[in-house]
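Side project, low priority. Logging it here so it doesn't get lost.
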Amino acid sequence: MPDALAIAAPIMPACDAAGQHSSLLERLLGEQQELTAVEQFARTYDRQNVPAAAKRYQQLMPAAPPGKGQQYAFEVDLDRCSGCKACVTACHNLNGLDEREAWRDVGLLVGGTSALPVLQHVTTACHHCLEPACLTACPVNAYEKDPLTGIVKHLDDQCFGCQYCILACPYEVPKYHAGKGIVRKCDMCSTRLAVGEAPACVQACPSQAIAIRVVSVESVIEDAEAALFLPAAPDPQITYPTTTYKSQRVLPRNMLPADYFQVSRQHPHWPLVVMLVLTQLSVGAFAWGIVLERLVGHEFSAAVRPVQAVMALVFGLLALAASVFHLGRPQFAFRAVLGLRHSWLSREIVVFGLFAALACSYAGAVVAPAAWPLPYDAIRLLAWGVVVVGAVAVFCSVMIYASLRRDFWDFPRTAVRFSLTSILLGLATLWLSLAALAVIRPSETSLALVAAAGPTICAALVIVTCAKLAWEAMLLRHLLSRAMTPLKRSASLMIRDLASPAVARFALGVLGGVFAPALLLRQFSAGSLEGGPLELMVATGLLFGASLAGELLERYLFFAAVAAPRMPGGIR
Protein backbone atom coordinates (compact mmCIF):
# COMPACT_ATOMS: atom_id res chain seq x y z
CA MET A 1 0.00 0.00 0.00
CA PRO A 2 1.17 3.59 -0.59
CA ASP A 3 1.15 4.32 3.17
CA ALA A 4 3.51 1.45 3.88
CA LEU A 5 5.85 2.52 1.11
CA ALA A 6 5.87 6.04 2.41
CA ILE A 7 6.74 4.88 5.93
CA ALA A 8 9.41 2.43 4.79
CA ALA A 9 11.13 4.97 2.55
CA PRO A 10 14.28 6.59 4.00
CA ILE A 11 13.71 10.00 5.41
CA MET A 12 16.05 12.17 3.47
CA PRO A 13 15.86 15.46 1.68
CA ALA A 14 14.71 15.43 -1.94
CA CYS A 15 15.07 17.94 -4.72
CA ASP A 16 12.19 19.56 -6.44
CA ALA A 17 12.05 20.52 -10.12
CA ALA A 18 14.17 23.60 -9.46
CA GLY A 19 16.82 21.56 -7.74
CA GLN A 20 15.96 22.84 -4.27
CA HIS A 21 15.46 20.53 -1.30
CA SER A 22 11.80 19.91 -0.21
CA SER A 23 10.58 18.87 3.21
CA LEU A 24 9.05 15.49 4.05
CA LEU A 25 5.60 17.08 4.40
CA GLU A 26 5.85 18.59 0.94
CA ARG A 27 6.90 15.20 -0.49
CA LEU A 28 3.93 13.41 1.12
CA LEU A 29 1.47 16.05 -0.07
CA GLY A 30 2.86 15.74 -3.56
CA GLU A 31 2.49 11.98 -3.54
CA GLN A 32 -1.08 12.29 -2.30
CA GLN A 33 -2.00 14.37 -5.35
CA GLU A 34 -0.74 11.58 -7.61
CA LEU A 35 -2.78 8.76 -6.00
CA THR A 36 -5.19 6.88 -8.22
CA ALA A 37 -8.91 6.64 -7.36
CA VAL A 38 -8.42 3.11 -6.01
CA GLU A 39 -5.51 4.22 -3.80
CA GLN A 40 -7.52 7.18 -2.51
CA PHE A 41 -10.41 4.84 -1.69
CA ALA A 42 -8.07 2.51 0.22
CA ARG A 43 -6.37 5.33 2.16
CA THR A 44 -9.65 6.99 3.07
CA TYR A 45 -11.57 3.98 4.33
CA ASP A 46 -8.90 1.63 5.68
CA ARG A 47 -7.75 4.24 8.22
CA GLN A 48 -11.25 4.85 9.64
CA ASN A 49 -12.33 2.66 12.51
CA VAL A 50 -16.08 2.61 11.61
CA PRO A 51 -18.41 -0.17 10.42
CA ALA A 52 -17.93 -1.28 6.84
CA ALA A 53 -21.35 -0.14 5.63
CA ALA A 54 -20.98 3.30 7.17
CA LYS A 55 -17.52 3.70 5.65
CA ARG A 56 -18.54 2.85 2.12
CA TYR A 57 -21.89 4.63 1.96
CA GLN A 58 -21.62 7.49 4.44
CA GLN A 59 -21.85 10.03 1.62
CA LEU A 60 -25.17 8.51 0.58
CA MET A 61 -26.63 8.56 4.09
CA PRO A 62 -27.73 11.45 6.29
CA ALA A 63 -25.36 12.53 9.02
CA ALA A 64 -28.16 12.56 11.62
CA PRO A 65 -31.67 11.11 11.93
CA PRO A 66 -34.68 13.28 11.11
CA GLY A 67 -35.70 15.95 13.56
CA LYS A 68 -38.96 17.70 14.13
CA GLY A 69 -40.69 18.53 10.84
CA GLN A 70 -38.35 16.22 8.89
CA GLN A 71 -38.31 12.68 7.54
CA TYR A 72 -36.20 10.28 5.51
CA ALA A 73 -36.55 10.36 1.72
CA PHE A 74 -34.95 8.93 -1.39
CA GLU A 75 -32.80 11.22 -3.51
CA VAL A 76 -32.15 10.19 -7.11
CA ASP A 77 -29.38 11.80 -9.15
CA LEU A 78 -30.68 11.56 -12.71
CA ASP A 79 -27.26 12.45 -14.08
CA ARG A 80 -25.83 9.28 -12.56
CA CYS A 81 -28.65 6.79 -13.27
CA SER A 82 -27.70 4.54 -16.19
CA GLY A 83 -30.73 2.23 -16.10
CA CYS A 84 -28.64 -0.83 -15.20
CA LYS A 85 -31.34 -2.09 -12.77
CA ALA A 86 -28.81 -3.16 -10.16
CA CYS A 87 -31.09 -1.47 -7.62
CA VAL A 88 -34.02 -3.61 -8.78
CA THR A 89 -31.99 -6.79 -8.44
CA ALA A 90 -30.65 -5.88 -5.00
CA CYS A 91 -34.11 -5.00 -3.68
CA HIS A 92 -35.47 -8.24 -5.12
CA ASN A 93 -32.76 -10.39 -3.54
CA LEU A 94 -32.62 -8.73 -0.13
CA ASN A 95 -36.38 -8.80 0.39
CA GLY A 96 -36.83 -12.32 -0.95
CA LEU A 97 -39.33 -11.32 -3.64
CA ASP A 98 -40.82 -13.77 -6.10
CA GLU A 99 -39.70 -14.03 -9.71
CA ARG A 100 -42.17 -11.51 -11.15
CA GLU A 101 -42.34 -9.27 -8.09
CA ALA A 102 -40.49 -5.96 -7.82
CA TRP A 103 -40.67 -3.08 -5.37
CA ARG A 104 -38.35 -0.83 -7.40
CA ASP A 105 -38.71 -0.07 -11.11
CA VAL A 106 -36.63 1.68 -13.74
CA GLY A 107 -38.36 3.78 -16.37
CA LEU A 108 -37.26 5.94 -19.27
CA LEU A 109 -37.90 9.55 -20.24
CA VAL A 110 -37.40 10.58 -23.88
CA GLY A 111 -37.33 13.99 -25.53
CA GLY A 112 -35.21 16.42 -27.44
CA THR A 113 -34.98 16.59 -31.22
CA SER A 114 -34.01 14.17 -33.96
CA ALA A 115 -30.66 15.94 -34.17
CA LEU A 116 -30.14 15.87 -30.39
CA PRO A 117 -32.31 13.19 -28.76
CA VAL A 118 -32.31 12.92 -24.97
CA LEU A 119 -32.80 9.71 -23.00
CA GLN A 120 -33.07 9.74 -19.24
CA HIS A 121 -33.41 6.65 -17.07
CA VAL A 122 -35.39 7.01 -13.84
CA THR A 123 -35.35 4.64 -10.89
CA THR A 124 -38.49 4.74 -8.75
CA ALA A 125 -39.84 3.08 -5.60
CA CYS A 126 -42.20 4.06 -2.79
CA HIS A 127 -42.06 7.81 -2.21
CA HIS A 128 -43.06 7.59 1.48
CA CYS A 129 -45.49 10.46 0.97
CA LEU A 130 -46.46 13.03 3.55
CA GLU A 131 -50.14 12.10 3.03
CA PRO A 132 -50.00 8.51 1.73
CA ALA A 133 -53.16 7.57 -0.15
CA CYS A 134 -52.54 3.89 0.57
CA LEU A 135 -52.79 4.54 4.30
CA THR A 136 -55.96 6.61 3.99
CA ALA A 137 -57.70 4.11 1.73
CA CYS A 138 -56.83 0.91 3.61
CA PRO A 139 -59.93 -0.47 5.37
CA VAL A 140 -57.95 -2.64 7.81
CA ASN A 141 -55.26 -0.15 8.92
CA ALA A 142 -52.51 -2.24 7.32
CA TYR A 143 -50.34 0.85 6.78
CA GLU A 144 -48.55 3.07 9.25
CA LYS A 145 -46.34 6.12 8.86
CA ASP A 146 -43.47 6.12 11.33
CA PRO A 147 -43.72 9.36 13.32
CA LEU A 148 -39.92 9.61 13.69
CA THR A 149 -38.61 8.56 10.28
CA GLY A 150 -41.64 9.24 8.06
CA ILE A 151 -41.29 5.80 6.46
CA VAL A 152 -44.61 4.33 5.28
CA LYS A 153 -44.68 0.67 6.29
CA HIS A 154 -47.09 -2.06 5.25
CA LEU A 155 -48.19 -4.47 7.98
CA ASP A 156 -48.37 -7.77 6.15
CA ASP A 157 -50.09 -9.64 8.99
CA GLN A 158 -52.88 -7.05 9.11
CA CYS A 159 -53.61 -7.02 5.34
CA PHE A 160 -56.52 -9.06 3.96
CA GLY A 161 -55.75 -8.45 0.30
CA CYS A 162 -58.54 -6.12 -0.88
CA GLN A 163 -56.04 -4.33 -3.20
CA TYR A 164 -57.74 -0.98 -2.68
CA CYS A 165 -54.39 0.62 -1.83
CA ILE A 166 -53.11 -0.33 -5.31
CA LEU A 167 -55.91 1.74 -6.85
CA ALA A 168 -55.43 4.55 -4.35
CA CYS A 169 -51.68 5.02 -4.87
CA PRO A 170 -51.12 7.29 -7.91
CA TYR A 171 -47.60 5.86 -8.33
CA GLU A 172 -48.56 2.14 -8.53
CA VAL A 173 -46.27 1.34 -5.60
CA PRO A 174 -48.07 -1.44 -3.65
CA LYS A 175 -47.81 -4.82 -5.36
CA TYR A 176 -50.27 -7.67 -4.88
CA HIS A 177 -48.85 -11.12 -4.10
CA ALA A 178 -51.42 -13.67 -5.24
CA GLY A 179 -49.70 -16.55 -3.48
CA LYS A 180 -49.75 -14.85 -0.09
CA GLY A 181 -53.04 -13.06 -0.68
CA ILE A 182 -51.66 -9.73 0.52
CA VAL A 183 -50.12 -6.52 -0.77
CA ARG A 184 -46.45 -5.70 -0.15
CA LYS A 185 -44.25 -2.67 -0.77
CA CYS A 186 -40.91 -0.97 -0.16
CA ASP A 187 -40.20 0.13 3.41
CA MET A 188 -36.86 1.81 2.63
CA CYS A 189 -35.10 -1.18 4.25
CA SER A 190 -36.08 0.36 7.60
CA THR A 191 -34.40 -2.41 9.60
CA ARG A 192 -31.09 -1.59 7.94
CA LEU A 193 -31.53 2.15 8.40
CA ALA A 194 -32.18 1.59 12.09
CA VAL A 195 -28.62 0.27 12.54
CA GLY A 196 -27.00 2.86 10.27
CA GLU A 197 -26.77 0.67 7.18
CA ALA A 198 -27.84 1.83 3.73
CA PRO A 199 -30.82 0.23 1.95
CA ALA A 200 -30.14 -2.45 -0.65
CA CYS A 201 -30.82 -0.18 -3.64
CA VAL A 202 -28.41 2.46 -2.30
CA GLN A 203 -25.62 -0.05 -1.79
CA ALA A 204 -26.14 -1.80 -5.12
CA CYS A 205 -26.10 1.24 -7.41
CA PRO A 206 -22.65 1.27 -9.07
CA SER A 207 -22.88 4.97 -9.90
CA GLN A 208 -24.25 6.13 -6.53
CA ALA A 209 -27.41 7.49 -8.12
CA ILE A 210 -29.61 6.71 -5.09
CA ALA A 211 -29.15 8.24 -1.66
CA ILE A 212 -31.08 8.61 1.59
CA ARG A 213 -31.57 12.18 2.71
CA VAL A 214 -33.44 14.03 5.44
CA VAL A 215 -36.03 16.37 3.93
CA SER A 216 -38.12 19.12 5.42
CA VAL A 217 -41.87 18.59 5.36
CA GLU A 218 -42.32 22.27 4.57
CA SER A 219 -39.99 22.07 1.55
CA VAL A 220 -41.83 19.02 0.20
CA ILE A 221 -45.10 20.93 0.30
CA GLU A 222 -43.52 23.94 -1.41
CA ASP A 223 -42.03 21.77 -4.16
CA ALA A 224 -45.40 20.11 -4.71
CA GLU A 225 -47.00 23.53 -5.11
CA ALA A 226 -44.49 24.28 -7.86
CA ALA A 227 -45.08 20.80 -9.40
CA LEU A 228 -41.38 19.97 -9.11
CA PHE A 229 -41.34 16.22 -9.62
CA LEU A 230 -41.08 14.34 -12.94
CA PRO A 231 -42.48 15.10 -16.42
CA ALA A 232 -46.00 13.69 -16.94
CA ALA A 233 -45.99 12.09 -13.47
CA PRO A 234 -49.07 12.24 -11.22
CA ASP A 235 -49.72 15.56 -9.53
CA PRO A 236 -47.47 15.67 -6.42
CA GLN A 237 -50.18 17.55 -4.50
CA ILE A 238 -52.26 14.36 -4.34
CA THR A 239 -50.02 12.68 -1.74
CA TYR A 240 -46.91 14.94 -1.42
CA PRO A 241 -44.19 12.45 -2.41
CA THR A 242 -40.85 13.03 -0.69
CA THR A 243 -38.50 11.54 -3.30
CA THR A 244 -36.24 14.16 -4.86
CA TYR A 245 -35.07 13.86 -8.47
CA LYS A 246 -32.12 16.16 -9.16
CA SER A 247 -30.12 16.95 -12.28
CA GLN A 248 -27.52 19.52 -13.30
CA ARG A 249 -28.94 19.51 -16.82
CA VAL A 250 -32.00 21.29 -18.10
CA LEU A 251 -34.43 18.67 -19.39
CA PRO A 252 -36.07 19.39 -22.77
CA ARG A 253 -39.60 20.81 -22.63
CA ASN A 254 -40.95 17.82 -24.57
CA MET A 255 -39.56 15.24 -22.13
CA LEU A 256 -42.13 12.46 -21.66
CA PRO A 257 -42.15 8.83 -20.46
CA ALA A 258 -41.23 6.35 -23.18
CA ASP A 259 -44.61 4.62 -22.76
CA TYR A 260 -46.61 7.84 -22.57
CA PHE A 261 -48.68 7.21 -25.70
CA GLN A 262 -49.26 3.53 -24.99
CA VAL A 263 -52.54 2.46 -23.40
CA SER A 264 -53.47 -0.94 -22.02
CA ARG A 265 -56.51 -2.43 -20.37
CA GLN A 266 -56.53 -2.60 -16.60
CA HIS A 267 -57.47 -5.39 -14.22
CA PRO A 268 -61.26 -5.96 -14.47
CA HIS A 269 -61.80 -7.05 -10.83
CA TRP A 270 -64.70 -9.36 -11.68
CA PRO A 271 -65.85 -9.90 -8.08
CA LEU A 272 -66.22 -6.13 -7.74
CA VAL A 273 -68.06 -5.98 -11.06
CA VAL A 274 -70.64 -8.48 -9.82
CA MET A 275 -70.86 -6.91 -6.37
CA LEU A 276 -71.43 -3.36 -7.62
CA VAL A 277 -74.05 -4.29 -10.22
CA LEU A 278 -76.05 -6.61 -7.97
CA THR A 279 -76.02 -4.30 -4.94
CA GLN A 280 -77.31 -1.46 -7.09
CA LEU A 281 -79.93 -3.80 -8.56
CA SER A 282 -81.06 -4.75 -5.06
CA VAL A 283 -81.29 -1.15 -3.84
CA GLY A 284 -83.16 -0.11 -6.99
CA ALA A 285 -85.61 -3.00 -6.70
CA PHE A 286 -86.52 -2.10 -3.11
CA ALA A 287 -86.92 1.56 -4.12
CA TRP A 288 -89.22 0.75 -7.03
CA GLY A 289 -91.36 -1.36 -4.71
CA ILE A 290 -92.24 1.83 -2.82
CA VAL A 291 -92.92 3.67 -6.10
CA LEU A 292 -95.18 0.85 -7.28
CA GLU A 293 -97.30 1.16 -4.15
CA ARG A 294 -97.85 4.83 -4.89
CA LEU A 295 -98.77 4.07 -8.52
CA VAL A 296 -101.27 1.24 -8.02
CA GLY A 297 -102.15 1.46 -4.32
CA HIS A 298 -101.54 -0.74 -1.32
CA GLU A 299 -104.05 -3.43 -2.30
CA PHE A 300 -102.42 -4.22 -5.65
CA SER A 301 -98.80 -3.83 -4.53
CA ALA A 302 -99.31 -6.15 -1.56
CA ALA A 303 -99.78 -9.06 -3.98
CA VAL A 304 -96.34 -8.68 -5.61
CA ARG A 305 -94.46 -7.38 -2.58
CA PRO A 306 -93.30 -10.81 -1.26
CA VAL A 307 -91.95 -11.92 -4.66
CA GLN A 308 -90.20 -8.63 -5.26
CA ALA A 309 -88.73 -8.47 -1.75
CA VAL A 310 -87.31 -11.98 -2.03
CA MET A 311 -85.80 -11.29 -5.47
CA ALA A 312 -84.21 -8.04 -4.31
CA LEU A 313 -82.86 -9.68 -1.17
CA VAL A 314 -81.41 -12.68 -3.02
CA PHE A 315 -79.55 -10.49 -5.50
CA GLY A 316 -78.26 -8.31 -2.66
CA LEU A 317 -76.95 -11.28 -0.70
CA LEU A 318 -75.33 -12.72 -3.84
CA ALA A 319 -73.58 -9.39 -4.32
CA LEU A 320 -72.15 -9.39 -0.81
CA ALA A 321 -71.04 -13.00 -1.21
CA ALA A 322 -69.30 -12.17 -4.51
CA SER A 323 -67.33 -9.34 -2.90
CA VAL A 324 -65.56 -11.81 -0.60
CA PHE A 325 -63.89 -13.45 -3.61
CA HIS A 326 -61.99 -10.23 -4.24
CA LEU A 327 -60.09 -10.63 -0.98
CA GLY A 328 -56.76 -12.40 -0.91
CA ARG A 329 -57.46 -13.56 2.66
CA PRO A 330 -61.25 -13.67 3.01
CA GLN A 331 -61.03 -15.28 6.45
CA PHE A 332 -60.05 -11.85 7.77
CA ALA A 333 -62.97 -9.99 6.18
CA PHE A 334 -64.20 -8.99 9.65
CA ARG A 335 -61.27 -6.56 9.89
CA ALA A 336 -62.85 -4.30 7.28
CA VAL A 337 -64.51 -2.17 9.97
CA LEU A 338 -61.18 -1.00 11.39
CA GLY A 339 -60.76 1.81 8.87
CA LEU A 340 -64.25 3.26 9.32
CA ARG A 341 -62.84 6.65 10.35
CA HIS A 342 -60.91 7.26 7.13
CA SER A 343 -61.65 4.60 4.49
CA TRP A 344 -64.65 4.76 2.15
CA LEU A 345 -64.30 1.03 1.60
CA SER A 346 -64.84 0.39 5.31
CA ARG A 347 -67.87 2.66 5.27
CA GLU A 348 -69.34 0.87 2.26
CA ILE A 349 -68.90 -2.53 3.90
CA VAL A 350 -70.49 -1.41 7.16
CA VAL A 351 -73.46 0.33 5.48
CA PHE A 352 -74.12 -2.59 3.13
CA GLY A 353 -74.03 -4.89 6.15
CA LEU A 354 -76.75 -2.77 7.75
CA PHE A 355 -78.65 -2.76 4.45
CA ALA A 356 -78.57 -6.58 4.34
CA ALA A 357 -79.88 -6.83 7.91
CA LEU A 358 -82.76 -4.44 7.21
CA ALA A 359 -83.54 -6.15 3.91
CA CYS A 360 -83.72 -9.55 5.61
CA SER A 361 -86.08 -8.12 8.24
CA TYR A 362 -88.29 -6.52 5.62
CA ALA A 363 -88.43 -9.63 3.45
CA GLY A 364 -89.27 -11.77 6.46
CA ALA A 365 -92.06 -9.42 7.48
CA VAL A 366 -93.75 -9.45 4.06
CA VAL A 367 -93.16 -13.11 3.16
CA ALA A 368 -94.12 -14.65 6.52
CA PRO A 369 -96.47 -12.19 8.24
CA ALA A 370 -97.83 -14.92 10.49
CA ALA A 371 -94.39 -15.71 11.91
CA TRP A 372 -93.47 -12.05 12.28
CA PRO A 373 -96.64 -9.97 12.49
CA LEU A 374 -96.01 -6.27 12.03
CA PRO A 375 -98.50 -3.46 11.45
CA TYR A 376 -98.59 -1.92 7.99
CA ASP A 377 -97.01 1.34 9.17
CA ALA A 378 -94.05 -0.56 10.65
CA ILE A 379 -93.54 -2.52 7.42
CA ARG A 380 -93.68 0.68 5.40
CA LEU A 381 -91.17 2.36 7.73
CA LEU A 382 -88.91 -0.68 7.42
CA ALA A 383 -89.12 -0.49 3.62
CA TRP A 384 -88.10 3.16 3.70
CA GLY A 385 -85.22 2.27 6.02
CA VAL A 386 -83.97 -0.34 3.53
CA VAL A 387 -84.11 2.15 0.65
CA VAL A 388 -82.45 5.02 2.55
CA VAL A 389 -79.62 2.85 3.91
CA GLY A 390 -79.18 1.29 0.46
CA ALA A 391 -78.89 4.73 -1.14
CA VAL A 392 -76.23 5.70 1.41
CA ALA A 393 -74.37 2.46 0.62
CA VAL A 394 -74.44 3.23 -3.12
CA PHE A 395 -73.11 6.71 -2.32
CA CYS A 396 -70.23 5.08 -0.42
CA SER A 397 -69.56 2.93 -3.51
CA VAL A 398 -69.40 6.10 -5.60
CA MET A 399 -66.97 7.75 -3.18
CA ILE A 400 -64.66 4.72 -3.16
CA TYR A 401 -63.79 5.46 -6.79
CA ALA A 402 -64.38 9.22 -6.91
CA SER A 403 -61.77 9.69 -4.17
CA LEU A 404 -59.06 7.99 -6.25
CA ARG A 405 -58.45 11.04 -8.50
CA ARG A 406 -59.09 9.23 -11.81
CA ASP A 407 -60.83 11.38 -14.42
CA PHE A 408 -62.80 8.37 -15.65
CA TRP A 409 -63.97 7.76 -12.07
CA ASP A 410 -64.70 11.33 -11.01
CA PHE A 411 -67.79 11.97 -8.91
CA PRO A 412 -70.25 13.12 -11.62
CA ARG A 413 -69.46 10.26 -14.00
CA THR A 414 -69.46 7.58 -11.33
CA ALA A 415 -72.56 8.90 -9.56
CA VAL A 416 -74.57 9.00 -12.80
CA ARG A 417 -73.43 5.50 -13.79
CA PHE A 418 -74.24 3.91 -10.46
CA SER A 419 -77.55 5.77 -10.04
CA LEU A 420 -78.80 4.87 -13.52
CA THR A 421 -77.79 1.25 -12.98
CA SER A 422 -79.89 1.19 -9.79
CA ILE A 423 -82.85 2.74 -11.60
CA LEU A 424 -82.56 0.54 -14.70
CA LEU A 425 -82.02 -2.81 -13.02
CA GLY A 426 -84.51 -1.95 -10.27
CA LEU A 427 -87.16 -1.46 -12.98
CA ALA A 428 -86.13 -4.69 -14.71
CA THR A 429 -86.37 -6.61 -11.43
CA LEU A 430 -89.77 -5.10 -10.66
CA TRP A 431 -91.08 -6.19 -14.05
CA LEU A 432 -89.56 -9.65 -13.55
CA SER A 433 -91.43 -9.92 -10.24
CA LEU A 434 -94.75 -8.90 -11.84
CA ALA A 435 -94.33 -11.31 -14.73
CA ALA A 436 -93.30 -14.17 -12.43
CA LEU A 437 -96.34 -13.57 -10.22
CA ALA A 438 -98.66 -13.56 -13.25
CA VAL A 439 -97.22 -16.85 -14.52
CA ILE A 440 -96.75 -18.70 -11.21
CA ARG A 441 -99.95 -17.50 -9.52
CA PRO A 442 -102.32 -16.31 -12.27
CA SER A 443 -105.26 -14.41 -10.84
CA GLU A 444 -107.35 -11.39 -11.60
CA THR A 445 -105.23 -9.31 -9.26
CA SER A 446 -101.86 -10.34 -10.76
CA LEU A 447 -103.08 -9.90 -14.35
CA ALA A 448 -104.62 -6.54 -13.52
CA LEU A 449 -101.38 -5.48 -11.86
CA VAL A 450 -99.39 -6.42 -14.97
CA ALA A 451 -101.84 -4.54 -17.19
CA ALA A 452 -101.83 -1.46 -14.94
CA ALA A 453 -98.10 -1.13 -14.25
CA GLY A 454 -96.61 -2.83 -17.32
CA PRO A 455 -96.81 0.05 -19.84
CA THR A 456 -95.35 2.55 -17.37
CA ILE A 457 -92.48 0.22 -16.42
CA CYS A 458 -91.62 -0.60 -20.04
CA ALA A 459 -91.71 3.05 -21.11
CA ALA A 460 -89.50 4.02 -18.17
CA LEU A 461 -87.04 1.24 -19.08
CA VAL A 462 -86.68 2.58 -22.62
CA ILE A 463 -86.10 6.15 -21.39
CA VAL A 464 -83.58 5.19 -18.70
CA THR A 465 -81.67 2.83 -21.01
CA CYS A 466 -81.37 5.45 -23.76
CA ALA A 467 -80.17 8.02 -21.22
CA LYS A 468 -77.57 5.66 -19.78
CA LEU A 469 -76.22 4.52 -23.15
CA ALA A 470 -76.00 8.14 -24.32
CA TRP A 471 -74.11 9.09 -21.16
CA GLU A 472 -71.60 6.27 -21.68
CA ALA A 473 -71.18 7.10 -25.40
CA MET A 474 -70.24 10.69 -24.54
CA LEU A 475 -66.81 9.39 -23.53
CA LEU A 476 -65.94 8.93 -27.21
CA ARG A 477 -65.97 12.69 -27.80
CA HIS A 478 -62.59 12.83 -26.06
CA LEU A 479 -61.06 11.11 -29.09
CA LEU A 480 -61.20 14.53 -30.76
CA SER A 481 -58.85 16.01 -28.17
CA ARG A 482 -55.34 16.73 -29.41
CA ALA A 483 -53.84 16.22 -25.96
CA MET A 484 -53.35 12.68 -24.64
CA THR A 485 -55.60 13.12 -21.63
CA PRO A 486 -56.62 10.24 -19.33
CA LEU A 487 -60.14 10.36 -20.79
CA LYS A 488 -58.74 10.12 -24.30
CA ARG A 489 -56.80 7.03 -23.19
CA SER A 490 -60.03 5.49 -21.91
CA ALA A 491 -61.86 6.33 -25.12
CA SER A 492 -59.00 4.87 -27.17
CA LEU A 493 -59.26 1.62 -25.23
CA MET A 494 -62.98 1.49 -25.97
CA ILE A 495 -62.42 1.49 -29.73
CA ARG A 496 -59.27 -0.67 -29.72
CA ASP A 497 -58.41 -3.22 -27.05
CA LEU A 498 -61.88 -3.18 -25.51
CA ALA A 499 -63.87 -2.79 -28.73
CA SER A 500 -65.54 -6.22 -28.51
CA PRO A 501 -66.91 -5.88 -24.96
CA ALA A 502 -67.88 -2.26 -25.67
CA VAL A 503 -69.94 -3.24 -28.73
CA ALA A 504 -71.47 -6.15 -26.82
CA ARG A 505 -72.37 -3.83 -23.95
CA PHE A 506 -74.27 -1.42 -26.20
CA ALA A 507 -75.93 -4.25 -28.14
CA LEU A 508 -77.17 -5.91 -24.95
CA GLY A 509 -78.32 -2.57 -23.59
CA VAL A 510 -80.41 -1.89 -26.68
CA LEU A 511 -81.76 -5.45 -26.74
CA GLY A 512 -82.78 -5.59 -23.09
CA GLY A 513 -83.62 -1.97 -22.40
CA VAL A 514 -85.12 -0.83 -25.70
CA PHE A 515 -86.14 -3.69 -27.99
CA ALA A 516 -87.74 -6.01 -25.39
CA PRO A 517 -89.70 -3.25 -23.59
CA ALA A 518 -90.83 -1.84 -26.95
CA LEU A 519 -92.09 -5.29 -27.92
CA LEU A 520 -94.07 -5.52 -24.70
CA LEU A 521 -95.42 -1.98 -25.16
CA ARG A 522 -96.71 -2.97 -28.58
CA GLN A 523 -98.57 -5.86 -27.05
CA PHE A 524 -99.99 -3.63 -24.33
CA SER A 525 -101.17 -1.14 -26.94
CA ALA A 526 -103.04 -3.98 -28.69
CA GLY A 527 -105.07 -4.44 -25.53
CA SER A 528 -103.59 -7.70 -24.23
CA LEU A 529 -100.40 -9.73 -23.99
CA GLU A 530 -100.68 -12.03 -26.97
CA GLY A 531 -99.38 -15.55 -26.74
CA GLY A 532 -100.05 -16.25 -23.06
CA PRO A 533 -97.76 -16.74 -20.07
CA LEU A 534 -94.95 -18.49 -21.95
CA GLU A 535 -94.37 -15.63 -24.38
CA LEU A 536 -94.62 -13.20 -21.47
CA MET A 537 -91.83 -14.97 -19.61
CA VAL A 538 -89.68 -15.22 -22.74
CA ALA A 539 -89.97 -11.48 -23.35
CA THR A 540 -89.37 -10.79 -19.65
CA GLY A 541 -86.34 -13.10 -19.57
CA LEU A 542 -84.92 -11.32 -22.62
CA LEU A 543 -85.52 -7.95 -21.01
CA PHE A 544 -84.02 -8.82 -17.64
CA GLY A 545 -81.16 -11.07 -18.85
CA ALA A 546 -79.93 -8.71 -21.55
CA SER A 547 -80.19 -5.66 -19.27
CA LEU A 548 -78.27 -7.40 -16.48
CA ALA A 549 -75.59 -8.71 -18.85
CA GLY A 550 -75.24 -5.26 -20.39
CA GLU A 551 -74.73 -3.64 -17.00
CA LEU A 552 -72.15 -6.26 -16.03
CA LEU A 553 -70.21 -5.44 -19.20
CA GLU A 554 -70.57 -1.73 -18.49
CA ARG A 555 -69.02 -2.25 -15.07
CA TYR A 556 -66.27 -4.40 -16.60
CA LEU A 557 -65.41 -1.47 -18.89
CA PHE A 558 -65.57 0.82 -15.86
CA PHE A 559 -62.54 -1.01 -14.44
CA ALA A 560 -60.75 -2.12 -17.61
CA ALA A 561 -60.82 1.24 -19.41
CA VAL A 562 -59.70 3.49 -16.56
CA ALA A 563 -56.48 5.42 -17.15
CA ALA A 564 -54.39 7.72 -15.02
CA PRO A 565 -50.96 9.40 -15.06
CA ARG A 566 -48.24 7.05 -13.88
CA MET A 567 -44.53 6.96 -13.22
CA PRO A 568 -42.23 6.66 -16.28
CA GLY A 569 -42.14 3.23 -17.85
CA GLY A 570 -39.92 1.64 -20.46
CA ILE A 571 -40.30 0.93 -24.15
CA ARG A 572 -42.78 -1.92 -24.55
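Brief comment: Confidence is low (pLDDT under 50) at residues 1-14.
Revisit when time allows.
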